């Protein structure tokens, strides 16, 4: 079987382009993992690493944002405004849980029947914070 020279060149070119595209993805930098931290601590960690923390979602309203727990994060790069010489901004979108660590008759939170609720109750009775 013979191979047409232009077909072989096209396949080789496609492989080269694919390998270059993959190299860019492999070099992508991601923000530090802050899931499970209080927002106040997570915000400082992200800012120190060059990322702008952006609250995208909150659940509950029992805590101030600085005491809410980060339960999800997603990085994104925001391009500069058109016709500007600005640089893209690295942002980390954060989802916060602002419910109380343990539910009570008057405030929502984790059930004592859950792993999280038992850990929070144990930490509270020991005088420690459930998140460290």
From TrEMBL:
Protein source organism: Mycolicibacterium agri
Cleavable signal peptide = 1-23
Bias (Low complexity) occurs at: 119-132
**In what ranges is there compositional bias, type Polar residues?**
84-95, 104-114
Q: Which UniProt keywords apply?
A: Signal
User: Region Disordered: start and end of each range?
Assistant: 29-48, 73-132
Which domain of life does the protein's organism represent? Bacteria
User: Which protein, by its recorded name, is this?
Assistant: PASTA domain-containing protein
């Amino acid at each position: 079987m013979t191979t047409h020279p232009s077909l072989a060149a096209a396949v080789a070119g496609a492989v080269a382009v694919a390998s270059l595209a993959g190299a860019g993805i492999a070099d992508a930098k991601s923000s530090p993992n802050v899931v499970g931290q209080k927002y106040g601590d997570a915000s400082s960690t992200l800012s120190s690493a060059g990322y702008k923390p952006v609250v995208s979602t909150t659940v509950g309203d029992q805590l101030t944002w600085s005491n809410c727990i980060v339960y999800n994060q997603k990085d994104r790069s925001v391009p500069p405004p058109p016709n500007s010489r600005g640089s893209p901004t690295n942002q980390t979108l954060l989802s916060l849980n602002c419910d109380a660590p343990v539910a009570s008759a008057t405030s929502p939170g984790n059930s004592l029947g859950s792993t999280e609720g038992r850990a929070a109750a144990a930490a509270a009775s020991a005088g420690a914070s459930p998140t460290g």
